[in-house]
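Page 37, continued from 36.
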């Protein structure tokens, strides 16, 4: 047998199938612990940098990251998920994918440098050219670790990945804060990004036991490339859809309005960025392993959606009601104009986690092409919504984006997804109704409680309201059967995770 197509032990996942649930539970626990550390680091960076930098500093870098974020969807090429999703992979296949990712990183670096002057011209802001040139290096660096990270995820080595994430994020934030303190302004945000990426690449290579070989023919990599192309297309279109809003806000309102939007969006996205990565990282390989069993896949999918909904509903309602206090605590004086933006984007935070989980289900089922088609439809809906909203300026744009997500895009996506995965429309409806009722109860309770109390200090208000809200939410949830089952399952999962860590 050709050595290039011989499967090696460290590429196999057979050892995971015997006790996949235990692996999943422990991996989820470890990843959530890491997310807790990352949450603290991110909040610290937001609070410190918001006091060292101006809204226009964030707006300038946000103008460039719209471009770099868009191009970043091509760096992976969907090939990391192709590595994770495929039942069997070989040394030759992964080596070929590694070199493709490296080539994509180099190409995107060159493309970003070429596009930077045009971006500066569009926004009439000359400083964007050099910001784009320097940020382009993140593609060149990041392409070196795509397949190493994918293999660690495939093997469910999430304890290792969690450490890497925390350490690299800490290095980046420290570099950014020191730079901002030293008076480098918007360049400190560029330094933060590059330091985080470089640290992560170095640590992933040190942690991985895999080294790429030379590119070879006849490795059977074409099906993986086809899957990757469809997934890349879906990610690319999805990024266009989600970043159309900040792009238009920047055009209509300038750097000041975009800076306010950027900070409000970053704050409202924190719960999703803390909850979704550990869920996605663990759920993707776990769901891929059971994709061939429709009933097992369905049960796993519904349980995952219920747990995410339980957390999402509480977070969304709390952010809507306590928006002014949250902005005051984390952004400080001078950011009051971000409060209404924050409140509208908090409404959308209900949509993002559920839509992301549904996308994961389509990918795990091998339906990347179906996901691409939906992303194209989503882009059209957002384009029309934002165009209408722009009549009323920046706030109209944000309102149109958020409300269309809640009332149009999410419901239609669930109906569309039910045609491609073994989860029916009735299943989705039965999952969400109890949690929507619970969220409505919490919203009314918090509004009533806040109107009856006079609290001036934001920190005091948060300290009082959040524990009370959580108690209300859990007690009300225990009265609903489906919600009670998920609360108890999370409790038991936590116990298993703690015992596993002690063991």
């Amino acid at each position: 047998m050709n050595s290039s197509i011989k499967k090696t032990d460290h590429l196999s996942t057979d050892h995971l199938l015997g006790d996949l649930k235990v692996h999943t539970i422990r991996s989820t626990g470890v990843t959530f612990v890491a997310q807790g550390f990352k949450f603290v680091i991110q909040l610290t960076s937001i609070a410190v940098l918001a006091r060292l930098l101006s809204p226009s500093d964030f707006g300038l870098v946000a103008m460039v990251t719209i471009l770099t974020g868009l191009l970043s969807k091509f760096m992976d090429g969907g090939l990391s998920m192709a590595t994770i999703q495929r039942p069997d992979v070989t040394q030759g296949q992964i080596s070929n994918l590694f070199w493709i990712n490296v080539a994509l990183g180099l190409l995107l670096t060159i493309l970003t440098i070429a596009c930077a002057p045009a971006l500066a011209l569009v926004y009439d802001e000359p400083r964007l050219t050099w910001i784009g040139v320097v940020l382009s290096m993140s593609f060149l660096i990041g392409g070196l670790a795509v397949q190493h990270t994918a293999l660690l995820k495939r093997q469910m080595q999430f304890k290792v990945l969690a450490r890497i994430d925390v350490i690299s994020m800490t290095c980046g934030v420290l570099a950014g804060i020191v730079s901002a303190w030293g008076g480098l302004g918007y360049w400190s945000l560029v330094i933060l990004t590059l330091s985080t990426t470089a640290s992560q690449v170095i640590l992933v290579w040190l942690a991985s036991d895999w080294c790429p070989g030379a590119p070879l023919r006849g490795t059977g990599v074409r099906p993986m490339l086809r899957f990757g192309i469809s997934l890349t297309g879906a990610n690319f279109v999805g990024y266009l859809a989600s970043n159309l809003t900040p792009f238009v806000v920047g055009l209509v309102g300038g750097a000041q309005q975009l800076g306010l939007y950027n900070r409000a969006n970053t704050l409202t996205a924190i719960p999703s960025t803390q909850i979704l990565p550990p869920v996605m990282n663990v759920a993707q390989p776990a769901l891929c392993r059971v994709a061939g069993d429709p009933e097992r896949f369905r049960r796993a999918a519904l349980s995952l959606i219920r747990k995410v909904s339980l957390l999402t509903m509480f977070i969304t309602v709390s952010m809507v009601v306590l928006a002014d206090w949250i902005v005051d605590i984390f952004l400080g004086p001078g950011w009051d104009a971000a409060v209404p933006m924050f409140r509208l984007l908090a409404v959308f935070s209900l949509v993002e986690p559920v839509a992301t989980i549904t996308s994961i289900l389509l990918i795990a089922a091998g339906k990347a092409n179906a996901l691409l088609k939906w992303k194209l439809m989503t882009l059209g809906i957002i384009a029309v919504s934002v165009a209408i909203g722009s009549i009323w300026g920046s706030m109209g744009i944000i309102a149109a984006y958020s409300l269309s997500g809640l009332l149009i895009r999410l419901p239609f996506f669930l109906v569309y997804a039910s045609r491609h995965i073994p989860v029916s429309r009735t299943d989705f409806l039965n999952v969400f109704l109890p949690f929507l009722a619970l969220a409505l109860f919490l919203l009314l309770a918090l509004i009533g409680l806040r109107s009856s109390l006079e609290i001036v200090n934001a920190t005091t208000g948060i300290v009082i309201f959040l524990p009370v809200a959580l108690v209300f939410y859990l007690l009300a949830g225990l009265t609903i059967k489906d919600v009670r089952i998920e609360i108890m399952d999370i409790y038991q999962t936590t116990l298993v995770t703690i015992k596993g860590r002690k063991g």
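The CA atoms of residues 152 and 208 lie 7 Å apart. Flag for discussion at group meeting. The radius of gyration is 23 Å.
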